[in-house]
Amino acid sequence: MSAQPFRHVALIGLGLIASSISHALRRTGDDVRITGYARSAATRARAAEIGLCEVRDSAAAAAEGADLVILCVPMGAMEAVAREIAPALAPGAMVSDVGSVKASVLEAVAPHLPEGVTFIPAHPIAGTEHSGPDAGFAELFDNRWCLLTPTPETDPAETARLRGFWEALGARVDEMEAAHHDLVLAVTSHAPHLIAYTMVGVADDLRRVTNSEVIQYSAAGFRDFTRIAASDPTMWRDVFLTNKDATLEILGRFTEELFALQRAIRTGDGDMLHAYFTRTRAIRRGIVQAGQDTDAPDFGRHAGKGSR
Ligand code: NAP
Question: For atom 25 of ligand 1, which residue has the closest CA?
């Protein structure tokens, strides 16, 4: 891990991602000052209590004097926060974010930042279904990808500094264009979350299966959907509202595939189903081989807690 390239990091929003950044930064052992701000007094008090950072009473106060300000708020709050911190930013400071959608963040944030401040959007592809200042942990970004989406105008030296920041936190870093990022994430994250929300919603709607049966006999498939569908409602509402086109495109393709599978089931086309599931199994192997998930049975859950 390389040494930390920033001396004073400000975290706006003090939830899962920000608290994980704080823990991972401390783990580097580098002498980096961390200031922070969250909307509610309760979150600010809790962040101060557990020593996440020097907590300030406004976003602008937290950003004051920082050489890197990271916006760790839901997508829908990015623009308001950018407006708020703009007057406090020193020339030469860098602003970044951790939002799950990148094209809309560029539009929401960049126009409000003063001359001499660099904005480079970033997205650490790491998370859990938990939220808030207590949810973070230092290992969250270890070996996970963090995608940076600089524009053609971005100074490559600045992008390299942000790369160094994330690498020091344990992440692997790649760069891509914002719109491409949004399409990739629609496939790998956004559409799957919507499908999980739908499946859990369907089970809830099924009056023939009582709630207690759904919970009592919850097997691997449904149980894994419920974990994803427990993700933060505000964050995910904002993801779909800000990555509308890419998500709708992928959902269109999903619907076509679903119809093909539905037809194979109706016509008893076992060969088609078998070939399809063989192909998808290979994709799972690829993810495990790339070090992006465990190959332990049942995702490494303890023996005895496995699916029934
Ligand atoms: P979180 O745990 O819910 O934390 C969000 C934080 O933002 C809270 O501290 C909240 O303050 C604060 N906040 C909300 N509106 C604000 C405003 N207007 N001004 C200042 N603070 C505000 O969320 P998270 O999971 O860390 O997600 C943060 C960002 O990371 C989102 O943009 C999300 O898309 C992205 N992301 C999330 C994941 C994931 O798996 N969770 C993964 C990668 C990226 P209060 O507590 O006071 O409400």
Answer: 16
